[in-house]
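Design a sequence for this backbone.
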């Protein structure tokens, strides 16, 4: 068991204001909203809350200063990372107003429940991913019951204030020298009970439905990216709906290879055009899908041209990436007799053989060529 002052990181003579500041710093650092699914952070959050619960009370602090943990027999002295709180909801119940000041919106003393999140997968063509598209998806989910408007009570009746907790959603238990608040077992934290439940939803306040939702996919998305549709997940009575996550799957396109916002296009050109230069037709993302490009003479395999601003739109940003044109020089595998004759003439022009004394081509070996 750690000393409570050590838990908060303050001196034993710390003022109430210093205690509150220390607790605020730790609560903000280890708050569950800032550390989702982090058990270690949750334990530190509960430990700091237990320490502050004792030291912020003058009587309990005095007993702790005099007798240590024996003077406050109960959860704060019970050891373990979580101290006297079994879960974070108990912390919010105990310090509801304080969390409202810290984080804005915790003043109710308990967090509003939220429905489950859902996932759907959406297939896109390469062009749809590049330029954006609006598509419909089917989702099976719980929606708010239209008959009872989510109250769970039958028409003509209404939910009643829970008699166990008087509508607070929390009940108080005496443990040792101080009180601990926990979720009400009668209403499960809702603060209300239903005697005459709605027949359509059996008192749940929500019922299943398969519906069609319109999804707007922005231009420039990539394979594997996810869109979040807030509040389009499962509905829950007296709470917020969950979110719908749309996972995008983009089909490939043999004409283009994507690299972030840039796109690479490989173009095959005949060897004579690579030598002489001229016009070639290339694939583009725009308009009709092709355009004419002038290339200079002497293009080598692997050379490239960059078309600035002709790539993929940047998601939620202005501008586009670039299009990189890579050249692949094609060598014919078979020539006609006339083409072969012309090629030999060209070869003689480009690399003429030296003549011997008899006027015929001189055949040189390896060492002869080095002389």
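Sequence:
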């Amino acid at each position: 068991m750690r000393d409570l002052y050590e838990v908060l990181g303050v001196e034993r003579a710390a003022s109430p204001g210093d205690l509150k500041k220390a607790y605020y710093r730790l609560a903000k650092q280890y708050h569950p909203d800032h550390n989702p699914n982090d058990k270690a952070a949750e334990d530190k959050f509960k430990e700091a809350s237990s320490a502050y619960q004792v030291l912020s009370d003058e009587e309990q602090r005095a007993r702790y200063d005099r007798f240590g943990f024996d003077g406050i027999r109960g959860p704060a002295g019970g050891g373990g990372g979580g101290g006297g709180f079994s879960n974070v909801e108990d912390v919010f119940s105990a310090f509801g107003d304080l969390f409202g000041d810290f984080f804005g919106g915790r003043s109710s003393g308990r967090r509003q429940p939220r429905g489950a999140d859902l996932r759907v997968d959406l297939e896109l063509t390469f062009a749809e991913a590049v330029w954006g598209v609006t598509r419909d998806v089917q989702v099976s989910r719980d929606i708010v019951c239209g008959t009872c408007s989510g109250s769970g009570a039958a028409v003509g009746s209404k939910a009643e204030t829970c008699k166990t907790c008087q509508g607070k959603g929390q009940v108080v238990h005496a443990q040792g020298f101080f009180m601990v608040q926990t979720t009400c077992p009668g209403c499960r934290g809702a603060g209300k009970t239903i005697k005459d439940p709605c027949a359509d939803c059996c008192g749940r306040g929500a019922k299943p439905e398969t519906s069609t939702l319109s999804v707007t996919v922005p231009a420039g998305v990539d394979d594997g990216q996810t869109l979040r549709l807030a509040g389009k997940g499962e509905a829950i009575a007296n709470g917020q709906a969950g979110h719908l996550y749309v996972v995008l799957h983009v089909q490939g396109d043999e004409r283009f290879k994507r690299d972030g916002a840039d796109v690479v296009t490989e173009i095959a050109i005949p060897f004579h055009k690579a030598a002489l230069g001229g016009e070639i037709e290339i694939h583009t993302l725009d308009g009709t899908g092709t355009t004419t490009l002038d290339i200079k003479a002497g293009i080598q395999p692997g050379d490239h041209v960059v078309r600035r601003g002709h790539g993929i739109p940047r998601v939620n940003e202005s501008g586009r990436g670039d299009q990189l044109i890579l050249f692949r020089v094609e060598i014919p595998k078979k020539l006609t007799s006339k083409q072969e004759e012309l090629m030999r003439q060209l070869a003689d022009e480009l690399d003429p053989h030296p003549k011997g004394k008899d006027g015929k081509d001189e055949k040189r070996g390896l060492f002869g060529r080095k002389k």
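Confidence is low (pLDDT under 50) at residues 74-83, 104-110, 365-371.
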